[in-house]
Design brief:
alpha/beta; six-stranded mixed sheet; three-stranded antiparallel sheet; 16% strand; globular
């Protein structure tokens, strides 16, 4: 999508209205409609049953004098990834797997850690309580070694059980910010108003739990850098371009920021723009919002917004405008 040089404010919104109309027309034709198959939200009883089945398989293997093993989809191989215009990067239905064996010196420690975190997830789901990835790490930081180990295992378990992390009762701390014409109610009943001002609102840690979202925004602007986001806030961007919503993931976006952008797109279908640097890092960040990432490709349907548009200086503009 190309924009003419912006003149009056009304002409800018006329462009947005035309863009939104074209998006809605594409949706009605099925052009941008999300596929039916997606990572499902499992009930607590389903998650508990899935974990019990895994433990039962381990017990059965031991009874047969066989070494138990976890079979997990290989999330780090491009052979297991396909690209679709309406989704972005997603895992193929029949992908290669890897075995985490209990009798292999290379994988026995990971096998034990997966088993430990599975037991923690079982207790969380059973008691209907939640924990952050950081909480899990600090239950035994010496055993886990570092936070990355915990993060990868949780993603592996989510992929293995074919359920989103929310269904495992594990939350991640949000680093993103949101401002602008948006109001919603959090899971505990707290009402939030993101009206733009001197400061922004932190992206909620439980995106699936927020409800009653209300906005008259004409567009959603994703800003790559926190410094640029704060500068736009200081310059009253949201007031001058009202009504609009502005979001930043402070660089590489965390899961909650991506979930929020996806939720806003699914609910309101307003134009979504990314303001990023015209360098490989900025383009990568835009592509994560738009097409997803390899590591989270198993949950692509819940995270990607292929309708995202690049706003800002393009490499082609350097030659075009000399």
């Amino acid at each position: 999508m190309a924009f003419a040089p912006m003149g009056a404010k009304a002409s800018f919104f006329e462009v947005l209205d035309r863009h939104r109309a074209s998006l809605l027309a594409a949706l009605s034709r099925g052009g941008q409609e999300p596929p039916v198959q997606r990572t499902r939200t499992a009930s607590s009883s389903e998650v508990l049953a899935s974990i019990e089945n895994i433990i039962q398989d381990i017990v059965t293997s031991l009874a047969r004098n066989e070494a138990p093993a976890f079979i997990i989809d290989n999330r780090s191989s491009w052979e297991n990834i396909k690209f679709e215009d309406t989704v972005g990067l997603q895992m193929v239905s029949h992908c290669t797997t890897r075995k985490i064996k209990s009798d292999s010196p290379k994988s026995v420690q990971k096998f034990a850690l997966i088993l430990k975190i599975l037991s923690m997830i079982y207790k969380l789901v059973q008691s209907n309580t939640y924990a952050t990835k950081r909480d899990i790490y600090y239950t035994d930081s010496q055993l886990f070694g570092n936070q990355t180990v915990v993060d990868n295992i949780i993603d592996d378990i989510s992929c293995m059980l074919k359920v989103p992390r929310r269904s495992l009762h594990i939350l991640s701390t949000s680093k993103g910010l949101i401002a602008g014409d948006l109001r919603y109610t959090e899971e505990d009943g707290t009402r939030v108003n993101c009206t733009c001002g001197a400061s922004a609102i932190a992206v909620p840690s439980n995106i699936q739990g927020i409800q009653n979202l209300i906005t008259d925004a004409k567009f959603l602007l994703i800003v790559e850098k926190d410094a640029t986001f704060q500068r736009l806030l200081d310059d009253s961007f949201c007031d001058k371009m009202s009504p609009c919503i502005m979001v930043t993931g402070k660089g590489i976006p965390d899961l909650n920021t991506r979930l929020l952008v996806k939720k806003l797109w699914d609910l309101f279908h307003i134009p979504v723009f990314t303001l990023v640097d015209a360098d490989p890092h900025g383009i990568e960040i835009m592509c994560i919002y738009k097409y997803g990432s390899m590591s989270m490709s198993f949950e692509a349907h819940n995270l990607t917004v292929p309708a995202v548009r690049w706003l800002g200086l393009l490499p082609s503009d350097i030659k075009r405008w000399k």
